[in-house]
Structure formats: structure tokens, C-alpha cells
Amino acid sequence: MKPAVLAAAAALIITAPVMAQEAPAPAPAQDWMTAPRDWSAALRQDATALHGIIIDSHPGVHDSLNPEFRARVDAGLALALRRAETTTDAGGWWWAMRAFVAGFDDGHVQMGLTDQSRGFPTRWPGFLTVYRGADQVVAVRDEADAAAPPLGARLVDCDAIPAPQLAEQRIGAFRGRWFLESQRALFGDWLFMSASNPWIREMASCRFESAGETRTYALDWRVIEPADLSARRTRLAQRGGATFGLTTLDDGGVWMSMPSFNGDPASDAHKALTPMMADWQARQAELRAAPFVVLDLRGNGGGSSHWSKEIAVALWGRDWVNAKEPQVSVAIEWRASDANLAAIQTYVDEWTAAGESAERIGWAREIVEGMTEARAAGRPYWRDQESASSRPRNGRAPPQLVRGPVYVLTDPGCASACLDAVDLWKALGAIQIGRETSADTVYMDVREAALPSGLATLVIPMKVWRGRPRGNNEPHRPTHLFDGDITDSAALQAWVRTLAAAGP
């Protein structure tokens, strides 16, 4: 059995870092950002603690297949401590810590603000750009600013720094994984936002190309109100658009939307998915006879992979799943630290109280026992041999029970257990459509850890997956690319009808 991905911190992986840097409604004048504090000391304490948590509990520290990991951790701390020497405000603390986290190039190592009621004061030059393919183009602008570049203008350079290098320095260095298309799609609009980051300066002038002419624009940086910025950024969003639901379309196609796989029984996602799964099971014959089925993962940033396995079995049948799911030699190595062990024990307690399946509870208990044994023996890992995929094939092809094509619809936010779902469903025969996904490393199953300042929470992985078929930080790329607004469900439904009509 492939183990389910732990879910307690799954929502934080994607949403917390983004929310922490948004600019929602203003908070009272005296808050954590403006209250007197030694921000240099806060940065030193939090960076040192982050380093210590990683060394104590991250599976990469003793990973012989990643010998550069420890050096990367130490280099991140060294840079943060150098920046602490000149840090004087909340922005210096936050962005130095963000750069430390980004240096791991790992979507499962994240940090979010404890108080997400507001973001940092933000300035802009009257326009924002986003990626269209490999180019940054003007996507929104201050309509009253005649000096701003026109919509659609392509960025050439700023202050003599070419656009690709500029984005990597100003965004990638604080986000990580800038080699991924999904990162550029999700965070490209940050290039012309100045959110109290003292480690990059506001650009003075930029060149844009429009209608075959290149022109230089002097940048007039000024404050943008949080509500205005939020509305503009919402219009630029390149992910989401789905709400939980199982719908039969007019032509008989079935559309199942699941913007989260959160496995926490107390979560809204769990409460929505549980009755959806019961409906999915009850309508099994209809699903298999439908002209097409769409498994809509827009907005899904992960959670627990047991949902995708249940969906697969109900749709394709257990025989088909057993025959077609990836069969490779794998093993899971859990980093055996006291903190990781305590986190797994918490899941045992929560799942037992919630009446979750005996299989899930037993899996977690086995990890607790294995980690305890490894700790007592002084070993850094407990190797979960039961996770090795070694089921023999019987040589007979099971019947194909699904009549029409099955499409898995993805956006750039698909990460963690969402990627696991795409792994499985594509192996079973689903066709990926929409946009390229995010990607993850082989370090996974996260837990939370508080930082000494009390201002931020860290998320780190606890295990390493050996022999995963999908490579480290490798995204899923769609067979059919949707170039329109990925949040427009009506347009997507019309597009999928044309795909289904055209056939495989």
C-alpha cells in the first residue's frame, strides 16, 4: 500500500506563504509590524532556530543521495545572519527568512505568518506584469496614469538588467524553484510590487516593447491600497476557480471538482469530500457510462492521497487500479526525531478520536513504533519496508469499465497530494488537460514548527521517498494545454466538449 500523505498542515503548504504576503484590510496602527522590537535579534533567533529544526528533523540532512543538502542549510543561515547585522524592521526580518526558506527549492519547506490579518505595505509603479509564455507583459495598469506602459507591452529590461534575470533576482530568490513554470505563473505579478523588502531596491526605469517599438519608462513608485491591489491580483490569478461538487452536464459528461484533498476530519474539505465520495460510489454505473469524466483539481494544493485512491477504485475498479498503478521498487525513510515522532502520534490520536479507518490508524501507529525503535538504536531513519510496491501481476488484463475519456484538469497550484493524484490517474489512463502543475521534491509528509519570535510558523517534511517514478521537482505537463482563463469554468466545459468530440 502506498502510504497516505499526512494532512494536518497540508493547507498551509500553499496558502499560508501566499496569504502572508497579500495586502488585506489595514490593521490598527499599533500591531506586530510597527510595535517596538529588536528585529535584528528576531532574525538571528528565528534563522538559528530554523537551521536547528532542519538539522534535527529534516530527512535531507543524512541523505547520502543529496550530499549538498547540509551545505545549503548552513549557507542559508550564514546569509540570514549577515542580513541580521543591518535589519531594522519587520520587512527585513520577513524577507530574509523568506530567502532562507526559498533556498531549499522545496515546496514542502514553507513559512507562514502567524498573524495573517494583514500584509506588508505595498508600493507599485502603476502597473503589474504577468508571464505569458516566457515573456513578462503588462496585465493591469492604473487607468488614470498616462505614463504607464500599455496593456500587453513586453518587458525588455530594467536598469539594464534583462527581464529573466530581473525576475529571478527579485522574485525567485524569495520564492524558490524559479525554474518551474508554475512558480512563474503563480508569482510573476510580484515583479512590480515593492512590499517592504530592503534586500532589493525599487527599479528606476524599464524598457518595454509594444507594437514593434521599444520605449523607456521612468517608474513612479507609490502606495497602492490593499483592497485595490487584491482586486487587481484576483483578476490576474492563474489558478483556482473550482468549488466542491459532482455535476452531470447537459450532454451527460460528469464533472467532479475537488479544490483540496485535506484529510483533517475537522476541515471544510473533509466535510465536503466525504458526502461527495458517497455520491461518487452510488453513481458508479453512471460515471462509467458517461461520454467523458473530468476530475477537476483546480486550486488543489494537496492534503491526503487516500482521496485519489478511493476515487480511482470507484471509477476504474479495483482490478484495473491493481493492474495499472505504478509498480516500482520504492521505500520510505522517515527521519526519526523526537519532534517528528510526536507529530505522527498526534495524527494517531486525532484519527482515532475521529473514527478514521483502521488502515490509516494502523499505518500511523507503525510509523510511531518504527521511529521509536530507530531513536533507541541511534539511527537517523526508520525504513518503512511495507511501503515497497511489490505486488505481483497476474498477467491477465482486467476489463475496461469506463466508456469515455477521463480528463484530469490541473492548474499551476497542483502540488503534494494533488501531484500524487495525477501520478495515479494518468497511470490508469486519464488524460491531463489544463495547465502545467507545480512540482515537489522526494521529501514529504509535513509537520509544523513554531519559531522563537512567535511571528511565523515553519512547515518541514519528515520522510524521503526512494524510487518515486516522477523525478525530484518534476511537474506534470498537460496533453492538451488550455491557453485561456483557467478560472473560467464555463469556458473550460465548452473546451472539454470539443476535446471529447474529437476523440483521443
From TrEMBL:
Alphabetized UniProt keyword annotations: Signal
Pfam families for the chain: Peptidase_S41 (PF03572)
Superkingdom of the organism of origin: Bacteria
Signal peptide start and end residues: 1-20
Domain Tail specific protease: from-to ranges: 258-449
Keyword Signal: yes
Keyword Signal carried by entry: yes
Family matches, as InterPro entries: ClpP/crotonase-like_dom_sf, Tail-specific_protease
Region named Disordered: 378-401
Record's protein name: Tail specific protease domain-containing protein
Annotated organism of origin: Brevundimonas denitrificans
